[in-house]
Amino acid sequence: MHLARRARRTALAAASAAVGIVATAGLVATAAPAGAAQDPLRYVALGDSYSAGSGILPPDPDATLACLRTTLNYPHFVADRLGADLVDVTCGAAQTADLTERQYPRVAPQLDAVTEDADLVTLTIGGNDNSTFIGALLACGSAGAVTGGRGNPCERTYGDRFTSQVEESTYPAVRKALEDIMARAPHAEVAILGYPWIVPEEKGCFAKLPVAAGDVPYLRDLQATLNGVIERAADETGATFVDLAERSEGRDACAPAGERWVEPLLFGTNVVPVHPNARGESAMADAALDALGY
């Protein structure tokens, strides 16, 4: 946690305590001086569909339709709880490259929103690099359909291809993204969230997520690898890593409808499958606020 931000938070608490009318020993205190009030935090939210809350209704009227952003994403929950001024530029399907380049013709590079006066920056990023999520899920889903859910056809076909891409390509890209954010907002707290579990440890749910039984641990290991390189990049740059592994255990896409945080491929409730629902986004906000010490 940045010391400047901690000091400001302490000042905010002190100012709040000073405001009001206090009567003691016959003395009536007046309201705090005008200068004691503090401006709200300037909060910038970056990231991909797990930040944007893609597939959850209602849509964000301020977002380009292609970004599939909702007002029930975790940045909105965080901003509401902090009373922060939110600048939300999250966008579904974003890769690390879209932080510095236009993702769509009318969508500016996300880092354009990060300025020196930012107090807090959050993001999830990396899952779309190398088509990690969609590529692996489509590959394993197709392979599982061929075998009727038996065996581990995806692992036998692709081996360590996906994890190698994550370690060799996604890791340095995420680290560079965090360095770029900190260079633009040197006084801001920067938090990068891991991804909540999509699949359980072993037993899958072929009817809802058509992945062969033996490939469920394979996909789980891929996601653990991705979260691991994100945590490593955070540790090495001084960002806060928001670990969702323990919190999201048992809340994956195979969990019952009232318990899961991530919707399955089939028979789910989101417009966009295999993404967090509103319950999951709220839980991600809780995890971020806890990790940041709010």
Explain the overall architecture:
With 294 residues, this protein is α/β, with parallel strands linked by helices. It has a single domain, classed as SGNH hydrolase (Rossmann fold), CATH 3.40.50. It is built from eight helices and seven strands, in the order αβββααββαααβαβα. Helix 7 links the parallel strand 6 and strand 7. Helix 6 packs parallel to helix 7. The N terminus is likely disordered.
Let me know the average pLDDT: 89
Alpha carbon gyration radius: 21 Å
Identify the overall geometry.
globular
Query: What is the CATH architecture annotation?
Result: 3-Layer(aba) Sandwich
The arrangement of helices and strands along the chain is: HEEEHHEEHHHEHEH
Percent helix, as a range, is 25-40%
Instruction: Indicate how many domains the architecture comprises.
Output: 1
Taking pLDDT < 50 over at least 5 consecutive residues as the criterion, the unreliable ranges are 1-32
Distance between the termini: 11 Å
Tally of contiguous helical segments: 8
| The CATH top-level class label | Alpha Beta
| Biggest β-sheet description | 5 strands, parallel
Give a brief outline of the structure.
The protein has helices at residues 3-18, 49-52, 74-82, 132-147, 153-158, 161-184, 216-237, 278-292; strands spanning 23-24, 27-28, 42-47, 85-88, 120-124, 189-193, 240-242. With 294 residues, it is of the alpha/beta class.
Ordered list of secondary-structure elements with their pairings:
Elements lengths: L2 H16 L4 E2 L2 E2 L13 E6 L1 H4 L21 H9 L2 E4 L31 E5 L7 H16 L5 H6 L2 H24 L4 E5 L22 H22 L2 E3 L35 H15 L2
Parallel strand pairs: 3-4, 3-5, 5-6, 6-7
Antiparallel strand pairs: 1-2
Helix pairs in contact: 3-8, 6-7
